[in-house]
C-alpha cells in the first residue's frame, strides 16, 4: 500500500515551481506585491458576475444530483462499506476545509461588516449590526461548501466507481479531456492544483501564526516577534508532520476527532458563560436575515454605487474557495468510499455550513455584544493594534481568561495541523502515479511535503512574503472556473454512460 510510485512528471515540476516561485517572491516581494494585488483587484471587479453565477450554478447542479436518481449511486462496489464513522468522516470534512480561518474570521469578520456594511447602510448603525453576523453566515455557509462539494463528488466517482487509479483533478476531467488528461494539459492541471494548496498554506499561516503568537505573547507577557513565530511553526510542524506520517487512519482521523471535540467544547463554554439569550436571539435574527436576503447577497455586485464591498468580500471568498476546492475535493473523495452521491453532497454542505454557522453565531455574536454594550472597544483595538489583538481582547473578556486562552491556543495548533496534514497527504497523492482504492502515498513522500511546506512557511515568514503567496493562489481561481465546467460535463457524461453498471442504494 505504501509502495506507490511517484509521478515524476507532476512531482518534479511542482517541486521546482514551488522552490523557484518562492525564491522569486522573496527576492521581488516589494515589486511583486502591488502587481499581484492589482491583478487580484482586476479579477474581482471584472469577473464578479462569473464567480457569482458559477457558485449559484454549482448549487443548482448539486440539487439535481441530490434529488435525482443519480443521488442513490454508490461510490464504490456492491460490498464496499464506509471506512470511517459518520462523526470522524464529518470531522475530517470540516477541519480540512476550515483550519484556523474559522477561528479567526468568526471573531473579526463581523466587526468589519459593522464598520463597512453592505447595501449602502450607515456604518456602525443598528442596521449594520444586524447584518454583521448574517453576512458571515452567508459567506461561510451553503455557497462556500457547494464550491467544495462538486470536485469531491467528481473525484470520488472517478476513483471509486470508474476505478481510475489516481487521485488527480486531471482524472476528474477525463470525461472531456480524454487522452489529453494523461498529457501535458493534465499535468499542468495537477501542478496548478498543488500550487493552489501552497496558497492555502499561506492563508492558514498568514492568519493562524500571528493569532497564536498574539495569544502566547499575552499569556507569557512577551512581545510577538519573528522568533516566536518560528517557534510556533516548529511546534506545528512536529504535530502535523507526525499526523501525516501516521497516515489517514491513525493520524489525520484521530487529530480531526480531537479537533471537533475541542471546537465544540469552546463554543459551548462561550454560550454558557457569555450573554446566552442574546447569542441565541442574535443568531436567530442573523440566520433569518441571511435566508431572507440570500439571493440578493448571492448576486450583489453594486455596479452603480461601486462601494467595492461585494468584490472585496463575496467575490474574493468565492475565488478563494474555488482555488482551494480541488485540494479539499481530493481529500474528501479519498475518505468517502462506500457513501452515496447524495450522502456525500449533503454531508459536505451540511457539516461544513453548520460548523461555520455555530462559530459565527457564538464567537461573532459574542464579539458584537462586547462592542455594542461598550464592555470592550474591539474596533479600537483593531484600529490601533491589528486583528490579532481583537482575538486576545475577546479571550481576556471571558471568565477564566488564562484557561480559555490556553484552550484556544491548543485548538489553534490542532486546527492548523489538521488542515496542513491533509494538504501534505493530498499533495503526495496528486504526485503519486497509481494509488489504488485502498492505497496511501508513501510515508517518506507525505513527510517530505510536510517538511517542505514548513520550510516554505519559515522562509516566507522571515521575509514577509506570505500575503503575496496567498494572492497568487487566488489568481489560480480563473483557470479553476474552466476546470469546474470540465468536471461537471465529465461527471454528467459518466453518469449517463455507466447508468446500467451503477450500484444504486435504496432510500432508507
From TrEMBL:
GO terms for molecular function: transmembrane transporter activity. Keywords: Cell membrane, Membrane, Transmembrane, Transmembrane helix, Transport. It is a multi-pass membrane protein. The keyword Transmembrane applies. It comes from the Bacteria. The chain crosses the membrane at residues 12-29, 49-67, 87-108, 142-162, 192-216, 228-248, 260-283, 315-333, 345-368, 402-427, 447-468, 474-492. One of its GO terms (cellular component) is plasma membrane. It is found in: Cell membrane. Belongs to the BCCT transporter (TC 2.A.15) family. This is L-carnitine/gamma-butyrobetaine antiporter.
Amino acid at each position: 500500500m505504501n509502495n506507490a510510485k511517484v509521478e515524476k512528471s507532476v512531482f518534479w515540476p511542482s517541486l521546482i515551481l514551488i522552490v523557484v516561485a518562492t525564491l522569486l517572491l522573496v527576492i521581488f516581494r516589494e515589486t511583486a506585491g502591488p502587481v499581484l494585488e492589482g491583478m487580484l483587484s482586476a479579477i474581482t471587479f471584472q469577473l464578479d458576475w462569473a464567480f457569482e453565477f458559477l457558485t449559484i450554478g454549482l448549487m443548482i447542479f448539486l440539487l439535481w444530483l441530490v434529488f435525482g436518481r443519480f443521488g442513490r449511486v454508490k461510490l464504490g462496489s456492491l460490498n464496499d462499506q464506509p471506512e470511517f464513522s459518520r462523526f470522524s468522516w464529518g470531522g475530517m470534512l470540516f477541519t480540512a476545509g476550515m483550519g484556523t480561518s474559522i477561528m479567526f474570521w468568526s471573531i473579526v469578520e463581523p466587526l468589519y461588516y459593522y464598520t463597512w456594511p453592505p447595501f449602502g447602510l450607515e456604518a456602525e448603525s443598528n442596521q449594520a449590526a444586524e447584518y454583521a453576523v448574517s453576512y458571515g453566515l452567508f459567506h461561510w455557509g451553503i455557497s462556500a461548501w457547494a464550491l467544495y462539494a462538486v470536485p469531491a463528488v467528481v473525484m470520488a466517482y472517478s476513483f471509486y466507481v470508474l476505478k481510475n487509479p489516481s487521485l488527480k483533478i486531471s482524472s476528474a476531467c477525463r470525461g472531456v479531456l480524454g487522452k489529453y488528461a494523461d498529457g501535458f494539459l493534465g499535468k499542468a492541471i495537477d501542478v496548478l492544483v498543488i500550487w493552489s494548496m501552497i496558497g492555502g498554506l499561506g492563508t492558514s499561516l498568514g492568519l493562524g501564526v500571528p493569532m497564536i503568537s498574539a495569544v502566547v505573547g499575552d499569556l507569557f507577557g512577551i512581545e510577538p516577534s519573528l522568533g516566536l513565530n518560528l517557534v510556533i511553526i516548529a511546534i506545528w510542524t512536529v504535530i502535523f508532520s507526525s499526523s501525516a506520517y501516521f497516515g489517514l487512519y491513525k493520524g489525520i482521523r484521530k487529530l480531526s476527532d480531537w479537533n471537533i471535540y475541542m471546537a465544540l467544547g469552546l463554543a459551548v463554554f462561550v454560550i454558557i458563560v457569555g450573554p446566552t439569550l442574546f447569542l441565541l436571539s442574535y443568531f436567530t435574527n442573523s440566520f433569518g436575515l441571511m435566508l431572507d436576503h440570500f439571493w440578493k447577497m448571492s448576486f450583489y455586485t453594486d455596479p452603480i454605487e461601486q462601494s467595492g464591498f461585494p468584490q472585496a468580500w463575496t467575490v474574493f471568498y468565492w475565488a478563494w474557495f474555488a482555488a482551494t476546492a480541488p485540494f479539499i475535493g481530493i481529500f474528501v473523495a479519498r475518505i468517502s468510499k462506500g457513501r452515496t452521491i447524495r450522502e456525500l453532497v449533503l454531508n459536505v454542505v451540511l457539516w461544513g455550513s453548520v460548523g461555520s454557522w455555530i462559530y459565527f453565531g457564538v464567537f461573532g455574536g459574542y464579539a458584537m455584544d462586547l462592542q455594542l454594550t461598550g464592555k470592550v472597544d474591539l474596533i479600537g483595538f483593531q484600529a490601533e493594534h491589528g486583528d490579532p489583538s481583537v482575538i486576545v481582547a475577546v479571550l481576556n473578556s471571558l471568565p477564566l481568561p488564562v484557561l480559555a486562552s490556553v484552550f484556544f491556543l491548543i485548538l489553534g495548533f490542532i486546527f492548523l495541523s489538521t488542515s496542513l496534514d491533509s494538504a501534505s497527504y493530498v499533495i503526495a497523492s496528486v504526485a503519486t502515479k497509481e494509488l489504488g482504492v485502498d492505497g496511501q502515498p508513501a510515508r517518506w513522500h507525505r513527510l517530505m511535503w510536510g517538511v517542505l511546506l514548513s520550510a516554505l512557511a519559515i522562509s516566507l515568514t522571515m521575509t514577509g512574503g506570505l500575503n503575496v503567496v496567498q494572492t497568487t493562489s487566488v489568481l489560480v481561481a480563473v483557470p479553476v472556473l474552466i476546470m469546474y465546467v470540465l468536471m461537471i460535463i465529465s461527471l454528467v457524461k459518466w453518469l449517463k454512460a455507466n447508468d446500467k453498471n451503477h450500484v444504486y442504494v435504496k432510500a432508507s
